[in-house]
Amino acid sequence: MCANIKFHIISPTDKDPEEIQIYYDLIETEFGYSLFGIQDNKLCHISFQDDDVPNLEKLKVSWPNANLIHDPRGMKEIAKKVFDGADGKVDVLLKGTDLQVSVWKALTKIKSGTTVSYEKMAELVGKPRAIRPVARAVATNKIAYLIPCHRVIKKNGDIHKYGSGPERKKKMLSYEGAI
User: Fold this and answer.
1) What mean pLDDT is reported for the chain?
2) Average pLDDT for residues 36-49, to the nearest whole number?
3) In terms of residue numbers, what domain contains 131?
4) DSSP 143
5) Which of 87, 120, 150, 164 has the greatest CB tally within 10 Å of its CB?
6) How far apart are CA 146 and CA 161, in angstroms?
7) What is the pTM for the complete model shown?
8) CATH number at residue 128
């Protein structure tokens, strides 16, 4: 997986520009179809789905004022960086609270082929008592796989709950050699 990520942060209290353009495309990946969203040359969305018809609802919720435009140009190259580990930097646009952003950045430090518990994630971000808020931040990750929320599992080792289904999470972890 691409490790060269440059983060650009927007606070949720900042007002979204009224006329932002998000270009999207659906890419077939090892883990099913993946919807990519790019805003101003920054990756702002990756989600998985089971069919080849773009489901834009999650993208619309994250960016309610955006004008969504289907445009596949350049998406396959970004997908190669994300899923195949192709060389190059990926600019990522995150919109979240300080805690969410700290959790998302910490997720990128979990090595492929390993997992951590929600409790360990809370410790990693310096909030050992904030397990539930940290778990919510993990669950609200809008850039699946590149920000590897799938590497967080229950303390007892159970693989449960994943925005794109626990079976997809198991497939990702198996692919990375974690299970």
Assistant:
1) 92
2) 95
3) 97-175
4) B
5) 150
6) 18
7) 0.92
8) 1.10.10.10
